[in-house]
């Protein structure tokens, strides 16, 4: 998409697994057998699904149909996972009973380990053994997958986040904007909280990014700086917990409590103040973005009827725009919040949780998964917000 800025914005889906060429997908071995009498197929499958369910291979079809000469159909069934050493003696006894009862001739076959994430992958998978394919509910083919209106909206919210990151004067910080896509409103925004010692021990310039990264205080890039660094070395440093995404979540929760107050807890505002106070009395926060947003809701007519039953459940359905890819702590907080989509502009090669180092969005054991997109920002826009030096672009 070519914008008024003279560059090309791109929205690139970041899948839950590193992309591999469709013909080089990971496979696992299974033990399969041909079924000579098709009328026995259902009975055999029922028995097998009781004694040898294919727990991690839900995408793999149990039966393979193949047309052979004369228009006949040959059926093969997966009996179980192949024993690790490839020795059929390792096949579970129950499955051996099925083999013997129906006089089957087992053989080893390969199936794809993970469900296909694209049609191209699925076509390749079916060459080995048929699988099912469920296209994602959102379009993932880059910016062409978004409508023109959607892509413009994504670009404008990312610009908003970039401007926010710039608003901290000469200290570069990460910025987060939580957006309700239904009302197209920013409902919470925040920057990394940078703390200053009240009585600086040195005149050192503000730096948290390690040697060579002057005047950057991007918490998610170095989430463990406080473990590695000698305390008191810098006059300015990132709060170990109050990363932009975390503070934005807190601000969104405060907004919900304010717009949908719970009369059972009259003192919620007092609790809020306690939470917002810095834990360390030695430090002073330069700016409290969570408080800034509070004033924005005075004109908010979309909500504010005070009906507790309509209080949103966390950030369900909302999107978040971040200038830098979040660290594990922030990415996990966004899972807990039930965020719908995460957009970030700059990869985080040292600690990124959504593509650069880890891929939390592909972690099967989690109970919520959001879609992740990188928004590639044109160079001239980065130059304008003075982020090009440290964005890695
Ligand atoms: Zn973080």
In a nutshell, what does this entry contain?
By secondary structure, this protein is an alpha+beta fold. The chain is 26% helix and 19% strand.
Based on the model shown, name its key terms.
393 residues, alpha+beta, Alpha-Beta Plaits, Cytidine Deaminase, domain 2, six-stranded mixed β-sheet, four-stranded antiparallel β-sheet, 11 helices, 19% strand, elongated, binds zinc ion
Write the layout of secondary structure elements.
Blueprint: E1 10-13, E2 27-35, H1 41-51, E3 63-67, E4 73-81, H2 93-101, E5 107-112, H3 119-128, H4 148-166, E6 175-180, E7 185-191, E8 194-197, H5 225-228, E9 236-238, H6 244-259, H7 268-276, E10 283-285, H8 289-294, E11 319-324, H9 328-336, E12 341-346, E13 371-376, H10 379-384, H11 388-391
Parallel strand pairs: 11-12, 12-13
Antiparallel strand pairs: 1-13, 2-4, 2-5, 3-4, 6-7, 6-11, 8-9, 8-10
Bound molecules: zinc ion.
Zinc ion (ZN) binds next to helix 9.
Region (Disordered): 280-304
Biased composition (Basic and acidic residues): 286-300
Family: Belongs to the cytidine and deoxycytidylate deaminase family. ADAT3 subfamily.
Stated plainly, the CATH topology of the largest domain is called Cytidine Deaminase, domain 2
What is the string of SSEs from the N terminus onward? EEHEEHEHHEEEHEHHEHEHEEHH
* Number of strand elements: 13
CATH superfamily of the largest domain: Cytidine Deaminase, domain 2
What features would you describe in this structure?
Keywords: tRNA processing. The protein has about 400 residues and is α+β, with helices and mostly antiparallel strands. The chain has two domains: about 25-115, Alpha-Beta Plaits (2-Layer Sandwich); about 150-390, Cytidine Deaminase, domain 2, CATH 3.40.140. The chain has eleven helices and 13 strands. The chain has a six-stranded mixed beta sheet with strand order 1-13-12-11-6-7. Strands 3-4-2-5 form a four-stranded antiparallel beta sheet, covered by helices on one side. It is elongated, with a radius of gyration of 27 Å. The protein starts with 9 loop residues before the first strand and ends with a helix. Mean pLDDT is about 80; it is low at about 140-145, about 195-215 and about 270-305. The structure holds zinc ion.
